[in-house]
């Protein structure tokens, strides 16, 4: 495993129920989709980017409809298979990826950005632990996994990121 190679993963398998349509394909004022912005924001910080949970990307693991953890699990296994040290994650609805974030997140253990649990760092060695977590009886909440992985919660003072759950949130950007 190359300690310097980092995989980027855009978690895009959600149902977008509050948004009312496929949020990943919603367009920002510049005409580009949210998912295009998410990929472009993450790409400068990683060796490769994968999209998880969508047709044409990595399928959720072990099955579809597992929420963000199915996409994260697919990305962790992909990272292991291809020699990446770990995975930086973002949601498909995160059009901005702060330049200071990778340095704040990447470390020996898992980490998330306070208030934005899909913006995280996950060492590839957590793949088998996430397999075990998803095989157990639990609600498959990202919060349960964060606790199990003992992820650090990183705060970057002054950093405020948009939370896009509804069309009006996107229109307000």
List keywords for this structure.
single chain, alpha/beta
Briefly, what is this?
The protein has 173 residues and is of the alpha/beta class.
Description:
The protein is an alpha/beta fold and 173 residues long. 28% of the residues lie in helices and 21% in strands. It has 6 helices and 6 strands, in the order βαβαβαββααβα. It has helices at residues 34-42, 68-81, 101-105, 127-135, 142-148, 167-171, and strands spanning 2-11, 48-52, 84-91, 111-113, 116-123, 152-154. A 6-stranded mixed β-sheet has the order 2-1-3-5-4-6, sandwiched between helices. α2 runs antiparallel to α4. It is globular, with a radius of gyration of 15 Å. The model has no long low-confidence stretch (mean pLDDT 90).
For the secondary structure, the number of strands is 6
Q: Compute the average pLDDT.
A: 90
Name the helicity range. 25-40%
How is the main sheet built?
A: 6 strands, mixed
